[in-house]
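Standup notes, protein team

Yesterday: finished cleaning the Pseudotabrizicola alkalilacus set.
Today: Glycosyl transferase family 25 domain-containing protein structure.
Blockers: none.

Input for Glycosyl transferase family 25 domain-containing protein:
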Amino acid sequence: MILTRADLGIWLINLPRSTDRLARMQAQLQALGLDYTLFEAVDGRAGWDRLAATVDLPAFRSNVGREVLPGEIGCYHSHLGVWQALIDSPHKVALVLEDDVVFHDDFLTALDVALAHAGRWDMLKLNKIRAKFPVGQGQAGDYQLNAFVGSFTGMGAYLVTRDCAKRLMPDMLPIRRPIDHQLDRIDLTGFRHFALQPFPSHVDDGNTSTITGHGFAEVRKLPWYRRLGVYRNRLGALIGKGGHLLLGRITKRLPSGGRQSDR
């Protein structure tokens, strides 16, 4: 499947109070000549009484090892809201942007390359917070498509197909992890969650996040003895993702008539 920018919808997620961030993003997008739809972010703090019912708090504590942050639940619902907007739109794919992205000089080139290779991924990250232990999935022009056995997190800028959004949506609630951690469990979700590297953008929030505060000041980890399950979960994720990616590579090599991977 080869797509172009004509198939693309662009959504920018922004909290109304984050006016400086919006101004920076607008200037960058205008310079790139990219039209976008502004998506008003879900305010997790203001809407916590309503949003708390969508969170499995015991599972979240067990999976993450800390208390949930209202801002990350707002972030989670914001991305789901954009996915629903994509599903309801005529677009085949969305470029989803948070409001602290810095675009590199090759961003438009990378975007066109990614769209030209749209049949090879379901969700494609264009920057990251963490991306550990890459497993190559082939070349796309001058870029590399990578999956990751280790942590692959961050939602600053990514492409997602309408079909992928439709497939993922029914299983995204209740919330048991931050959204990027949930999507990172590719052994459970079974979709092609890759990166385009070298990344054509990065995130710069000035060390002041609308979710975790300045210097992660709002993060409250549980006592160490209540975080033992987290390490078990991380080991399970490492094994599960490694096996999933290895199986995908093996099945691709099977002769015609053998079991075929859908990866």
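Follow-up from PR in the comments: Confidence is low (pLDDT under 50) at residues 253-263.
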